[in-house]
Amino acid sequence: MGNGQTPPGIDLDTRGTIDDGTLGLNESPPPGPIGLDAKNNSAKGATASISERILAYARRKRGDHVGNGQCYAFADGALSQADARSARDYGDITPDADYVWGTSVTLADLQPGDVIQFRNYSYERQIVTERSDETVTRDEAGDRPHHTAIVQSVDGNGAVTVWEQNAPDGSPVTRTQLFFTSGTTTHGNQRTTIRVHGTFWFYRPVAR
Asked: Counting Cβ atoms within 10 Å, is residue 80 exposed (0-12), middle (13-18) or buried (19+)?
């Protein structure tokens, strides 16, 4: 999983509207209210606690290989140690399954600690800078054919920073910025165009 061959996105460790070809799905039936098992009976408190533990796990594992090195092993480890239900609680785990990681949410509701499941996702990003003497064009691309990632931050304009493993193949846990909204924005003399394709699901982890 996460075996794309193009560059994986904006690697932060080194430093619109979705178009007709893109499906941002959130139709899977929610497995239940968030955080009902919390000791303090507070859904908001339970979710925050789970999210904090998931992100703390991701930060601890930065630069490491978790389990067998697959993207699933990293996400499963993060949710399990946070006392959240994992994908195995919602269905069979097979190499090509579209895993469910909790309650379905939309991009607008996405928050740190949520989980993204990808299917044939890809993006192209072009940055055109108009200078007095020349026009400079920079092209980037990335893909996630079958992949799972954890949200670190929601950056605005469809950009999301994620923690992930095995993207590209064999890579350890790292932070990457990916894009989920197609469109064009202009800032000063710079124009950025992003095209997003494929399918992705957003999930809010649920307490056990």
From this structure: middle
